[in-house]
Amino acid sequence: MAAEQSNSLLILISAPSGGGKTTLCEQLLATDPNIVRVITCTTRPPREGEQDGVDYYFLDVETFRRRVGAGDFLEHANVHGNLYGTLKSEVLSKLDLGKNVLLSVDVQGAAAIRERAETDLRLKQALVTVFITPPSMKTLEERLKTRGKDSPDVIDRRLGVAREEIAQWKFYDYLIPSTTIREDLRRMEAILIAEKMRQSRATSPLFD
């Protein structure tokens, strides 16, 4: 078990909205039973059918802020007036079970986790960061329009934010220019295989 624990990965994926991050994460979870997602915390009310401890950990604002002050979160953010955060204990418990932990976060969350890992050897050893870019800004614009969720003004703002986020790619370990779902998954799987074989994660070979 110790060898498995030292070899487990914390897979952090970022992309601009519409960049293909959600689809890639869904494919990874569906095709590899050893990759698991983390249940995050939020202060927003549960939606119909959502269960505490399954979909999210639903916290009141006071409890959430107290846990922020205690340093319990790897990253946290205010999204449209609701607080969201990833608990360090949630990540470490799964790594210690030999699971590869998948985190889908924005560039601010990724920066916070990288900073936290600099002073936490366990996180630093496990962390692998990947940025997904759309084939082009035109393709990204078309994807956002096709979703039909946003007004033209909102799409323009999302594109502006996307340009700023894409500029952060150089702070990640890997860059995947998105093409097709199948090719994106193949590239991601190749990254994970390579990371598993890194000398820094390997156990000493034993020979008779």
Give the rounded overall mean pLDDT. 90
**How many structural domains in the coordinates?**
1
CATH topology: Rossmann fold
Query: Numbering strands along the chain, what is their spatial order in the largest sheet?
Result: 2-7-1-8-9
The CATH architecture can be named as 3-Layer(aba) Sandwich
Describe what this molecule looks like in 3D.
By secondary structure, the chain is α/β, with parallel strands linked by helices. The chain has one domain (2-199): 3-Layer(aba) Sandwich (Rossmann fold). Helices cover 45% and strands 20% of the residues. The protein has helices at residues 2-7, 21-31, 61-69, 88-95, 107-117, 121-126, 137-147, 152-166, 181-196; strands spanning 10-14, 35-37, 41-42, 57-58, 73-79, 82-87, 100-104, 127-133, 174-177. The strands form 2 sheets. It has a 5-stranded parallel sheet, with helices on both faces. The chain has a 4-stranded mixed sheet with strand order 4-3-6-5. A hairpin with a 2-residue loop joins β5 and β6 (82-87). The longest helix is centred in the C-terminal third of the chain and has 16 residues, at 181-196.
